[in-house]
Amino acid sequence: MGEWVRLAPFGYDRDDLTRRLVPNDNAPTVREIFRLRAEGVGFSDLAQRFRNVSRSGIRKIVMNRAYLGEQRVPDPDKPKGSDLIVLRENQEPLVTEPEY
């Protein structure tokens, strides 16, 4: 449990051996996006500043709890489609809870 099976979020790569997320060269950009968003910079302004990320991409970043080191996985003890389990500290977080 805890292996990342989807496409890695911006700022992470999936390690081929462990299948867990590891920060990549875009991790500092993610941290800067969170910092500027906390200062009140809007999504469109952030997208203009970071041209390699779209406005909707910026929104996805700031709403994704994977950047806190969390992953949500199906509960193996419950029927498919029911509640998810939150795995905390599943990968190196790129931001802290207050930054999020």
Report on the architecture of this protein.
This protein is α+β, with helices and mostly antiparallel strands and 100 residues long. The chain has one domain. Helices cover 28% and strands 14% of the residues. It contains 3 helices and 4 strands. It has helices spanning 27-38, 43-49, 55-63; strands at residues 12-14, 21-23, 71-74, 84-87. A two-stranded antiparallel sheet has the order 1-2. Strands 3-4 form a two-stranded antiparallel sheet. The two termini are 25 Å apart. The relative contact order is 0.21. The model has no long low-confidence stretch (mean pLDDT 91).
Attribute tags:
single chain; 100 residues; alpha+beta; 3 helices; 4 strands; globular
